[in-house]
Amino acid sequence: MTIPLAALAAPNDFDFEFGDWKAHLKRRLDPLTGSDKWVEYRGTSIVRKVWGGKANLGEIELEGAAGRIQGLSLRVHNPTTGQWSISFSNSAGGTIGTPMIGGFKDGRGEFYNQETFRDRAIFVRFVFSGITEKAFRLEQAFSDDGGKNWEANWIATFTRD
To answer: Origin, by domain of life (predicted)?
Structure first.
């Protein structure tokens, strides 16, 4: 798989996300099994600037019929590579996942990594899209065929008044 490289990232790429948001999440229950069963959550997200914008910290709190999700995202800009890394931790797991690497181009952010899921190596992709002052979308997708096909498993929309 060839991972597309975004244009050189800038320390202000995530400025659109600073502040308080209402969050709605659809999460696929059994990714990469052919299942199309989803659960939904609602809650809040708060993102704040760290190190004058060279990093930022996001906290998400969601609740739904399937339970509660408390997550923490740390995004750090690397001035040498011109890319961002995104690390995520879920309070239920208590660990920090493999960073996603990427950046923004033409109002769309793409970030990739490789992880192990159910004892298999997979590619993971985050896409930030539909970015305005009042809304944006974040989709996470998995690929178990080297990036030829992607299956969304986390679709979040964020809005604010």
So the answer is: Bacteria
Rounded CA gap, 83 and 76, in Å? 9
Would strands 135-143 and 120-129 be described as parallel, antiparallel, or unpaired? antiparallel
What is the pLDDT at residue 129? Answer: 97
Rounded Cα distance between 86 and 125, Å, is 11
Mean pLDDT of the chain, nearest integer: 92
When computed from its CA atoms, the radius of gyration of the chain, rounded to whole angstroms, is 15
CA distance 69 to 94: 12
- What structural domains does the chain harbor? 15-30+38-159 (2.40.128.20)
For the segment 49-101, what is each residue's pLDDT rounded down to a tens digit? Answer: 999 888 999 999 999 999 999 999 999 999 888 899 999 999 998 889 899 99
* DSSP secondary structure of the chain: -PPPPPSPP-TTTTGGG-EEEEEEEEEESSTTTT---EEEEEEEEEEEEEGGGTEEEEEEEEEETTEEEEEEEEEEEETTTTEEEEEEEETTT-SB-PPEEEEEETTEEEEEEEEEETTEEEEEEEEEES--SSEEEEEEEEESSTTSS-EEEEEEEEE--
